[in-house]
């Protein structure tokens, strides 16, 4: 697991987005800044190879270049909040979609829709979902990728907040999946919400909160 460095600057951004009174514009702005940090950290996990280039002064620079095909799969809807920053970083990246919703009563995930890039089995996949609570939805999304031939070790699960319970469940079920997060929360409450938490990320990001 990769946890972003817990700097004062990151904590200040978390303070804004965790505030129940935060304006939507502020919530989106600071969420996007954290998302960018997460995606940069996730891309550090993609394999590279040596690649030399000639600089404008005629010197040789012993550099690196990406050595694997990468695509992204956001979990609709909250995961789609990560798309704009990813497209800014990686223009032309192919993006699939998975729709999984958790039953409000049973808390169990249900798969409703899948559309993935052709040849995804040969790619490294950034699985985008801001919240890792019980791990049920993440596990269901990972199973979809595995069923389409993606190697477990080629999946990078990118999220903002993770609960200890969700991380433990994911580690038990899929130990080779790598996780990148900006915060490990204290616990889940009796309603399976993270504490201190952030509320419903999708509703707050897209402006559909009551």
Description:
With 210 residues, the protein is of the alpha/beta class. The chain has one domain: 3-Layer(aba) Sandwich (Rossmann fold), CATH 3.40.50.2020. The protein has 6 helices and 15 strands. Strands 1, 4, 5, 6, 7, 8, 10 and 12 form an 8-stranded mixed beta sheet that branches. Strands 9-11-13 form a 3-stranded parallel beta sheet. Strand 4, helix 3 and strand 5 form a beta-alpha-beta unit. Helix 1 packs across helix 2.
Summarize the entry for a quick read.
This is uracil phosphoribosyltransferase. With 210 residues, this protein is an alpha/beta fold. The protein is 31% helix and 29% strand.
Q: In which range does the helix fraction lie? A: 25-40%
Quaternary: single chain
* CATH class assignment: Alpha Beta
> Helices and strands, in N-to-C order?
EHHEEEHEEEEEHEEHEEEEH
Strand content: 25-35%
Task: Tally the helices.
Answer: 6
Integer-rounded radius of gyration: 18 Å
Mean pLDDT: 96
Low-confidence stretches: none
Q: Characterize the main sheet.
A: 8 strands, mixed
CATH architecture name: 3-Layer(aba) Sandwich
Shape verdict = globular
CATH fold category name: Rossmann fold
Span between termini: 34 Å
* Total domain modules: 1
Query: How many strand elements?
Result: 15
Tell me the structural class: alpha/beta
